[in-house]
Design a protein that fits this description.
Number of helices of chain A: 1
Strand content of chain A: 35-45%
CATH superfamily of chain A: Beta-grasp domain
CATH architecture of chain B: 3-Layer(aba) Sandwich
Shape of chain B: globular
CATH class of chain B: Alpha Beta
Number of domains of chain B: 1
Oligomer: heterodimer
Number of strands of chain A: 7
Largest interface: A-B, 23 and 46 residues
Number of strands of chain B: 10
Order of helices and strands of chain A: EEEHEEEE
Number of domains of chain A: 1
Strand order of the largest sheet of chain B: 5-4-3-6-8-7
Distance between the termini of chain A: 59 Å
Strand content of chain B: 5-15%
Helix content of chain A: 10-25%
Radius of gyration of chain B: 20 Å
CATH architecture of chain A: Roll
Structural class of chain A: mainly beta
Order of helices and strands of chain B: EEHEHEHEHHHEHHEEHHHEEH
Number of helices of chain B: 12
């Protein structure tokens, strides 16, 4: 019998093209703080929905943290 | 967290406004903010033809989308800068956006239009920062395209963060001539210029990014490779920290500058333009900034060629 694997949340950081794995459920605000991202400087995306700071994210979630800061505008 | 308007689950929280919204209510909020800004600053009249400068980024595509939603007669203008894969990807996004919506789009490629003067080669020849060369060149092509196409207004996607960073930079150096022209609406100073407007200047980049995401706009997420280390990003980072400590700081900074302080710098504004001896477009000297840049590059290239053949 296979041992159950412990799930870890995958967090994709864009545009850095970096993925980190995080264990344990937590609020979005805590996740951002852990990754050193200021609230309001990135969108937190799960599937096709956006998450506010108070949402809970879990180990089986796939999360994208997409920075919104750009160097200028056309 | 609940939506302030309808109490459904909120998808976005705006600390500066102390509100949270679900998707439909956020889209309503965003459109209403743009409508109010346009009306308060008399940016656009309903019958005017609007040329929208688009880069493939979230701000300019969000602007084009919301102006279409609000019923304005628009066309897009994309200026290809020749910055390798980044420019290629940007153009693909812009063409896909316009194609999917059946919107008219004009494309100007600097490598073709300006005799091979793409941004990297100009920056290299003149030793200017790429963004400086880009600014000079894009303004020339924006003005020329607006004139040729018979547009009434040129709209750009500058957002609150862009304006706050620019204002901070101008204040730190007390660049009064720049402060004189830092306005959400620039009236034409010559018959060959059109009015220039920034309908998103009170909406932050988080807000424009959320709008683009919710509207399913496929924009370029990657940063321009030339933006690495740009001073504007340093200012944006400092302002983000201030905003985090005191929500609403950026909005107050930009909004109150426009309301209370901007007019005091009006006397530093340059005199009316005359015709450039090179291209005939309006200029504040014998040659416009663009023709000066072209001449500088040509001179330096000729010197370099002479050194090689000597």
């Amino acid at each position: 019998m296979l041992a159950s694997r412990r799930l870890r949340m995958r967090v994709h950081l864009r545009p850095q093209r970096r993925t980190v794995e995080v264990s344990g459920p937590r609020r979005v605000a805590a996740l951002l703080a852990e990754l050193g991202v200021l609230p309001g400087t990135a969108m937190v995306i799960r599937g096709d929905e956006l998450l506010t700071d108070s949402e809970l994210v879990r180990e089986d979630d796939e999360i994208e943290i997409r920075a919104v800061i750009s160097g200028g505008a056309a | 967290m609940k939506c302030k308007r309808c109490t459904a689950r909120a998808e976005v929280q705006l600390r500066a406004h102390n509100v949270a919204f679900c998707r439909p209510c956020y889209l309503f909020f965003f459109r209403r903010q743009v409508e109010r800004t346009i009306a308060a600053h008399r940016m656009l009249a309903p019958t005017e033809r609007v040329l929208v400068a688009v880069s493939g980024g979230k701000d300019s595509l969000a602007l084009w989308d919301v102006l279409v939603e609000l019923g304005y007669d628009t066309a897009g203008l994309y200026v290809g800068l020749g910055i390798g894969d980044y420019s290629d990807a940007s153009r693909v996004k812009v063409e896909a956006f316009a194609g999917a919506r059946g919107l008219p789009l004009r494309i100007v490629t600097l490598e073709d239009e300006a005799g091979g003067l793409a941004v990297p080669s100009v920056a290299g020849a003149t030793r200017r920062p790429p963004c400086s060369a880009y600014g000079t060149m894009k303004r020339h092509y924006y003005d020329a395209a607006a004139l040729e196409g018979g547009f009434d207004v040129l709209a750009t996607g500058h957002n609150l963060d862009d304006e706050a960073a620019r204002l901070l930079g101008n204040v730190l150096r007390w660049q009064t001539d720049y402060l004189a022209r830092q306005r959400p609406v620039l009236q034409p100073s010559h018959p060959k210029f059109v009015r220039k407007v920034k309908p998103l200047f009170l909406l932050g980049e988080y807000e424009t990014a959320v709008y683009a995401f919710m509207r399913g706009i496929d924009y370029v997420v990657e940063e321009c490779p030339n933006a690495v280390g740009a001073t504007q990003l340093v200012y944006k980072d400092a302002l983000d920290r201030l905003e985090h400590a005191s929500p609403g700081t950026k909005l107050g900074f930009v909004k109150e500058f426009a309301r209370k302080a901007q007019a005091t710098f009006a006397s530093a504004e340059p005199p009316d333009a005359r015709a450039c001896a090179g291209c005939g477009m309006p200029s504040y000297g014998e040659l416009c900034s663009f023709c000066n840049l072209v001449r500088e590059v040509e001179t330096k290239r000729a010197r370099a060629a002479a050194r090689v053949s000597a």
